[in-house]
Amino acid sequence: MSELSNKKLIASDYDKTYHRHDAEDLDNNNLAVQKWGNAGNVFAISTGRDVASMLFEKNIVTLNTTT
Questions:
Q1: Which of 4, 17, 20, 64 has its CA 20 to 30 A from that of 58?
Q2: Which residues lie closer than 8 Å to 40 by C-beta, 6 or more apart?
Q3: End-to-end C-alpha distance for the chain, whole angstroms
Q4: What is the pLDDT of residues 53-64, one digit of tens each?
Q5: What's the pTM value of the predicted model, to 2 decimals?
């Protein structure tokens, strides 16, 4: 059986979904994503923003990323 067969994927919009401009919500979401990843699953941000905008966001808030 393939290693990927047991993985699950969740994708979320960023603005006002994953990050609702509330630090506590963002911290809770980051913790949930970390647990999700530690369980062998994958989380992805799905946004209409361009890459430069998200890289800027990464510099001003703590996002759990692999890049």
A1: 4
A2: 6, 7
A3: 29
A4: 888 887 665 555
A5: 0.73
